UniProtKB/TrEMBL annotation:
Residues 291-322 are annotated as: Disordered. It comes from the Eukaryota. Residues 12-254 form the SET domain. Gene3D superfamilies: 1.10.220.160, 6.10.140.2220, SET domain. It comes from Rhynchospora pubera. Residues 295-322 have a biased composition (Acidic residues). This is Histone-lysine N-methyltransferase ASHR2.
Length: 378
């Protein structure tokens, strides 16, 4: 893992601004070099991804559990990786509810793990969580059922302040819009296929203000299983490439390799907006060109006429990879074979690194395009 000297939260590289069409967002205050750390953020709240994850990961720091973990002396369900994590424990309402959640044959929604953890926060932290932006809205009937289930796990002497169906609805809305996944290690121990999944979810107050772009300019790294890092659940965001002063910092909320329609469908369903980034505008034009070409081909088939020149022209418009806006060069340079994102290591002595690190599998290798990129010359 590379050294990360930047403090948690926004630093001199970023400032928070309000834009009419984007809401709250973070923009660069100066030219940012490739690989430069733009943000380190500490979670406001962490919670298990599911009951099935509890035997595999520490309930405090969410590192992989050792061979002989330390059980929680209260609930006897949660496990901890060290005496330090055991002493810090886990959310009190979740601790109280876990024995009931795992007993019997009932299947409980994973949302309860979040709500029990959120309602365990100190009052000031809970208010900060509720101040996060959200787009999602849920049917009153669904929230009523969820709140009723939640209430059944909280005894009268442990009912938190601000406990209400309205607050529960607001919390769920904040979680659906702002939560981040802490991925599992990419090996067959956890899923049999070596594909990353979620060990836990977290709410990160500053990271939640980073907006979406289908070709993002920063990449998130997490080093949850780093043994020599106390704040192992902090998120580190590094620049893919040079970012000009005043440019908004963006991540992708969905996999960047997903096709246009899939991205738009996912963004609308999960975040409530239609993306109109530069990439999406380009791909819409491709779709329009493709539809026009298909209509022309259908018309030719119906009339029995052939017009090879017209067909070739249409295909060239669709597939011309020499177009300077063609985004596939992004995938070639910043995508790892595993499906993760590649970003340069942080600059050393002001010089941009020639090495690229994957934020998913962790592989580090030489950037073959380094010497041909003028943005790497400082």
């Amino acid at each position: 893992m590379a050294n990360q000297p930047n403090p948690a939260g926004p630093n001199a590289l970023l400032r928070l601004v309000e834009k009419p069409d984007r809401g709250r967002c973070l923009v660069a205050t100066r030219l940012i070099k490739p690989g430069e750390v733009v943000l380190v953020d500490t979670p406001l709240l962490l919670y298990p991804s599911s009951l099935a994850s509890l035997p595999l990961f520490c309930s405090r720091c969410f590192r992989c559990l050792p061979g002989q973990p330390f059980p929680c002396p209260t609930c006897h369900v949660a496990r901890f990786c060290s005496r330090r994590c055991l002493s810090l424990s886990h959310p009190r309402l979740l601790c109280h509810a876990l024995p009931s959640l795992i007993s019997g044959n009932a299947t409980w929604p994973d949302d309860l793990l979040f709500l029990l953890s959120a309602y365990s926060l100190p009052g000031s932290s809970l208010l900060r969580l509720l101040s996060l932006h959200s787009n999602s809205r849920f049917p009153d009937e669904s929230i009523q059922i969820l709140h009723s289930q939640l209430s059944s796990f909280i005894p009268p002497n442990m009912v938190p302040l601000n406990f209400s169906q309205e607050t529960t609805s607001s919390l769920i809305s904040k979680e659906k819009t702002n939560s981040f996944s802490l991925i599992t290690p990419m090996n067959t121990k956890f899923d049999g296929r070596g594909v990353a999944g979620s060990r836990a979810f977290g709410l990160y107050p500053w990271a939640s203000m980073i907006n979406h772009d289908c070709l993002p300019n920063v990449c998130r790294f997490d080093y949850v299983d780093e043994l020599n890092q106390e704040n192992n659940t902090d998120f580190t965001f590094r620049a893919f490439h040079q970012i000009k002063e005043g440019t908004e910092i963006c991540i992708s909320y969905v996999g960047v390799t997903r096709p246009y329609r899939d991205r738009q469908r996912s963004l609308m369903k999960n975040y409530g907006f239609k993306c109109e980034c530069d990439r999406c505008k380009i791909e819409v034009k491709w779709k329009e060109s493709q539809r026009k070409l298909e209509d022309e081909e259908e018309e030719e088939e119906e009339t029995g006429e052939e017009n090879e020149e017209q067909v070739v022209e249409g295909e060239g418009e669709e597939l011309d990879s020499d177009d300077e806006d063609f985004p596939h060069a992004y995938f070639i340079r910043y995508m790892c074979d595993c499906g993760g994102n590649l970003a340069p290591l942080p600059p050393s002595d002001g010089l941009v690194s020639e090495m690229m690190e994957c934020n998913c599998c962790g592989d580090v290798g030489m950037d073959t395009s380094y010497h041909s990129d003028p943005n790497n010359k400082f």
